[in-house]
Structure to design on (994 residues):
């Protein structure tokens, strides 16, 4: 993938907090080097590239630098070293008016602790970005009302943030970030305060939105199920560095480092691995009977795999063509866990 | 806790040794006063630096050569215009816009409605009641003269404070310049502000308004800075991500999000304004303060009591209202609510106002209560006071005699007898003890200029009065605080009382003491003691209440008796808070001593009053700085000490 079709990309990005002069930053600089001079490396030598319409999920322990990375993407923080390119332009070199224009037209962000304006009602909060770009009053109220009903908050338009529950505030934040129809959408743990039912609903809504309009999304979460449901790719961070950035399947099936393997060890692989990933070329062998769709996760086709006695099952691609054969024993190992 | 921390660290040990050596030196200088060379007893006349001349020269330059006069004139013209408008509206001077005066019933109704909107029934009754009282007692004109100035001065202060606070927030350099200036400004006595204003503007309401504006700006600057700093970063980031420009970010995100702090700033501006407006009677500002001053000087106790009550009511009202405003949180209305439902107070106000205008059209009594129609409590109060005095006069008389002959005069003579050099060394010793060489130098740099200014004797008299008052205040305040803190309910009530008393302009405290002791030194000390006891009392209660309950329980489990608990657990832990209280108490006393000068003292305050009447800026400011430096010296010592205690306590418990 070249930089041309990536919407956001960064090269050797560093963000170091702390006072005074810091040591020179090279790819080999360690956290300890920096700590010795009283600095904290929140983002450490990160290079990433996100395609148009792609959804990247960032995961990692608390304090691993996820929020800081996203803040660098939006230039809420200036990178200490390295560059962030947004739609082919170096965001660090933009002038203030250019940056404001970019945020007004292209970017939306949901904040971890919501960041709602306490003196404005839910409706006025959602309308705020529209107000900033000078939209007239009636159209911005109409748009904000629509956004609030999208997140299921009709009837609460006049409430102040203080009068809303955490989950409701979070949904106001989501509605606000969507008000300007951003092309690039940053979400910092956007569903963390929601109950499981609404969370699920919001995820579905989210997937629907994503299918409808080609948004480029960077999504931070602590929830693996959520990541697997939504992600095109997952980046796993540790101490500011990206350990691995890959598709969910490859993250669980081929962890790049021991840390990633440990991090993903508790995941139910059957929910991640899709039938297509296990399909091998048939080498002339032909099998008749019911075939499995390549996009289905093993979890979804578990019943079929368990009850089907054939040692090799045929897998068909999305267009209906034959893709290959799946080894049933291998699939069962993933579904049921390796035999003891 | 390690073994090492049981012994003082080497640095602390050195600190103590040096301080002891210095103390010894001070003691030697004192003992050997009579054999000391003259230069060490008092600074020779030749060494006095003519600060006053220099300041006068600077002011003359500013006024005449720099054309600052035109600038101040322009500003004061704007202020005067606003004053004319409010004067016309409130008590009807025949000036533009020629609509006033607004009938008192309408103003009382407005106050009651605003009170209700901000704080419900009780505030509404307080607000309406205050204005009805003012009108019925025939004090309308004076009270409105006072209020018309506050109404103009407070907004100017708030805007000025906002601008300067924002500047300090935006530019570090501005903050670094403003910070020391604010420290000094907040310890300059009221009169020090008046003298330059008299020089530039003259006397009268306009000068009163301007001095009020200047005097009440500092807290607004501080709170603006604090408010802007305390906006959560995510709120600002969300504003940035919404594409706000810097201006939009300031006006629509930062300032509204800092609302509570800013409004607490407004509250302080209003209270400072009230205190200053009352005192501005000394520079010819008409109103309640001037009336009170005249009545006090004529020893009309009953009438001055009436005015005092009005000032107290206004103080409580303004404080409660502005605080209620600051702490008010927005609430939503149902979307389908009618206009009436959404704006009940506006509707009520319109109805009441119309009703008020109709009333006043029907009978002039509802427009203005004439003096001869006014009620008065003065007769009964005077009679009551006379009766009281005949009972306690012997006691008061004896107390006065005793205090003057056996305490005050000997103490004053002792303070004056001390050689200057001994006092300076003593100050350095204390400084060294609390904070090492740095603190010793800071303390000396506050004390030296006073010696060099040539006002040493006067300053020593001020110091003696403050010392006596604060010691008495501690003797009264700490036990009272201990009693009050014993029961949570009682503590609550006492704190409320302290809060309320702190809102009163200092002038008020003179009424009862003059009533009891007449016009003399004892009255001044008594007023200062009462005024200074309030912060001590308050911080004692808060210090005791702040002791962590786990520690109290732990001590109880070790079988501590109540006395032991107090001595070994609660009081030591409350010491840092107590020190802060003592510090405030000293500040309060200093201000009060200076204000009380007009009833007869021989300290810096008296000289300052002379400088005021002579409009001598140089002398006035030198005296003002002398007072400020005494305050800052005490402030430095006590706060350093308090911080040290806090650090010590927390390092031991960890
Ligand atoms: N403004 C700042 N100043 C100094 N250090 C900071 C600042 N912001 C973040 N850090 C540090 O950078 C590191 C990464 O913080 P970050 O907020 O990016 O973590 P995170 O991965 O988002 O964690 P969480 O999951 O808890 O939100 C942390 O160690 C944090 O202490
Ligand atoms: Mg975070």
């Amino acid at each position: 993938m070249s930089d041309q079709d990536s919407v956001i990309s960064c090269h050797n990005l560093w963000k170091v907090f702390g006072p005074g002069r810091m040591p020179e930053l090279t790819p080999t600089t360690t956290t300890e080097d920096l700590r010795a001079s009283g600095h904290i490396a929140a983002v450490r030598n990160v290079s990433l590239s996100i395609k148009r319409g792609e959804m990247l999920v960032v995961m990692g322990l608390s304090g691993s630098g996820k929020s800081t990375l996203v803040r660098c993407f939006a230039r809420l923080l200036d990178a200490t070293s390295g560059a962030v390119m947004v739609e082919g332009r170096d965001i660090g070199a933009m002038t203030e008016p250019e940056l404001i224009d970019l945020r007004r037209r292209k970017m939306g962000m949901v904040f971890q602790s919501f960041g709602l304006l306490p003196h404005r009602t839910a409706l006025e909060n959602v309308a705020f970005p529209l107000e900033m770009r000078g939209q007239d009053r009636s159209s911005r109220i109409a748009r904000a009302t629509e956004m609030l009903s999208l997140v299921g908050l009709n009837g609460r338009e006049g409430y102040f943030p203080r009068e809303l529950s955490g989950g409701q505030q979070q949904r106001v934040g989501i509605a606000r970030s969507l008000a300007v129809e951003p092309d690039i959408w940053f979400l910092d743990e956007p569903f963390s305060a929601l109950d499981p039912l609404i969370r699920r609903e919001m995820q579905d809504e989210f997937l629907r939105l994503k299918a409808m309009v080609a948004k480029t999304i960077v999504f931070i979460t602590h929830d693996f199920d959520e990541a697997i449901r939504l992600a095109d790719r997952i980046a796993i961070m540790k101490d500011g560095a990206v350990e691995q950035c890959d598709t969910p399947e490859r993250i669980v099936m081929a962890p790049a480092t021991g840390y990633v393997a440990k991090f993903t060890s508790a995941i139910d692989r059957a929910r991640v691995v899709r039938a297509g990933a296990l399909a091998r070329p048939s080498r002339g062998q032909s099998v008749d009977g019911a075939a499995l769709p390549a996009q289905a996760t093993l979890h979804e086709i578990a019943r079929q795999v368990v009850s089907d006695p054939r040692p090799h099952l045929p897998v068909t691609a999305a267009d209906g063509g034959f893709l290959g054969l799946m080894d049933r024993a291998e699939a069962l190992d993933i579904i049921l866990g390796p035999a003891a | 806790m390690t073994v090492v921390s049981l012994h003082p660290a080497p640095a602390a040990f050195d600190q103590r040794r040096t301080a002891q050596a210095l103390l010894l030196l001070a003691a030697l200088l004192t003992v050997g006063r009579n054999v000391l060379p003259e230069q060490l007893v008092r600074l020779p006349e030749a060494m006095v630096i003519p600060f006053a001349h220099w300041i006068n020269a600077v002011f003359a330059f500013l006024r005449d050569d720099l054309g600052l006069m035109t600038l101040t004139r322009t500003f004061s013209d704007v202020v005067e215009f606003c004053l004319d408008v409010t004067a016309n509206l409130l008590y009807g001077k025949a000036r533009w816009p020629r609509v006033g005066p607004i009938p008192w019933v309408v103003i009382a109704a407005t106050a009651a409605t605003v009170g209700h909107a901000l704080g419900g029934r009780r505030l509404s009754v307080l607000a309406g009641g205050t204005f009805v009282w003012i009108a019925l007692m025939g004090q309308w004109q004076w009270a409105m003269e006072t209020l018309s100035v506050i109404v103009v001065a407070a907004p100017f202060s708030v805007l000025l404070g906002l601008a300067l606070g924002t500047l300090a927030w935006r530019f570090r350099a501005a903050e670094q310049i403003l910070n020391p200036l604010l420290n000094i400004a907040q310890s300059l006595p009221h009169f020090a502000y008046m003298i330059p204003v008299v020089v530039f503007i003259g006397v009268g309401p306009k000068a009163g308004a301007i001095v009020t504006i200047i005097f009440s700006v500092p807290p607004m600057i501080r709170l603006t800075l604090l408010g802007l700093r305390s906006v959560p970063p995510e709120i600002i980031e969300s504003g940035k991500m919404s594409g706000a420009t810097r201006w939009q970010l300031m006006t629509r995100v930062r300032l509204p999000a800092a609302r509570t702090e800013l409004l607490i700033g407004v509250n302080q501006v209003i209270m400072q304004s009230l205190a200053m407006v009352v005192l501005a009677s000394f520079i010819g500002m008409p109103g309640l303060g001037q009336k009170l001053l005249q009545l006090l000087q004529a020893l009309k106790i009953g009438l001055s009591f009436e005015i005092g009550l009005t000032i107290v009511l206004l103080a409580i009202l303004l404080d409660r209202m502005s605080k209620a405003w600051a702490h008010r949180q927005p609430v939503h209305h149902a979307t389908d609510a009618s206009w009436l439902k959404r704006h009940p107070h506006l509707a009520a106000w319109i109805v009441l106002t119309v009703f008020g205008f109709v009333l006043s059209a029907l009978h002039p009594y509802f427009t203005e209560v004439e003096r001869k129609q006014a009620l008065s409590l003065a007769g009964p109060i005077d009679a009551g006071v006379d009766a009281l005095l005949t009972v306690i006069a012997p006691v008061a008389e004896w107390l006065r005699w005793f205090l003057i002959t056996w305490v005050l005069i000997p103490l004053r003579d002792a303070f004056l007898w001390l050689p200057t050099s001994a006092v300076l060394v003593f100050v350095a010793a204390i400084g060294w003890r609390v904070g090492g060489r740095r603190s010793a130098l800071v303390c000396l740099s506050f004390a030296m200029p006073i010696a060099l200014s040539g006002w040493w004797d006067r300053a020593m008299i001020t110091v003696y009065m403050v010392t006596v008052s604060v010691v008495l205040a501690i003797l009264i305040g700490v036990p009272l605080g201990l009693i009050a803190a014993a029961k949570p309910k009682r503590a609550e009530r006492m704190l409320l009382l302290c809060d309320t008393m702190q809102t009163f302009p200092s002038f008020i405290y003179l009424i009862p003491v003059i009533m009891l002791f007449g016009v003399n030194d004892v009255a001044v000390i008594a007023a200062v003691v009462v005024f200074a006891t309030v912060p001590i009392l308050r911080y004692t209660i808060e210090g005791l209440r702040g002791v962590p309950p786990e520690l109290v329980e732990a001590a109880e489990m070790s079988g501590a008796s109540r006395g032991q608990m107090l001595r070994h657990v609660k009081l030591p832990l409350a010491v840092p808070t107590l020190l802060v209280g003592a510090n405030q108490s000293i500040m309060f006393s200093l201000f009060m001593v200076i204000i009380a000068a007009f009833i007869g003292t021989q300290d810096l305050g008296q000289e300052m009053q002379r400088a005021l009447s002579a409009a001598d800026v140089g002398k006035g400011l030198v005296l003002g700085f002398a007072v400020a430096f005494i305050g800052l010296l005490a402030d430095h010592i006590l706060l350093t000490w308090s911080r040290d205690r806090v650090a010590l306590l927390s390092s031991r418990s960890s």
Observations:
- The first strand of chain A starts at residue 6 and ends at 17.
- Chain A touches chain B at residues 71, 74, 76, 96, 100-101, 103-105, 107-109, 111-121, 128-129, 131-133, 155, 157-160, 162-163, 173, 176-177, 180 (CB under 8 Å).
- Residues 288 and 314 of chain A are 8 Å apart (CA to CA).
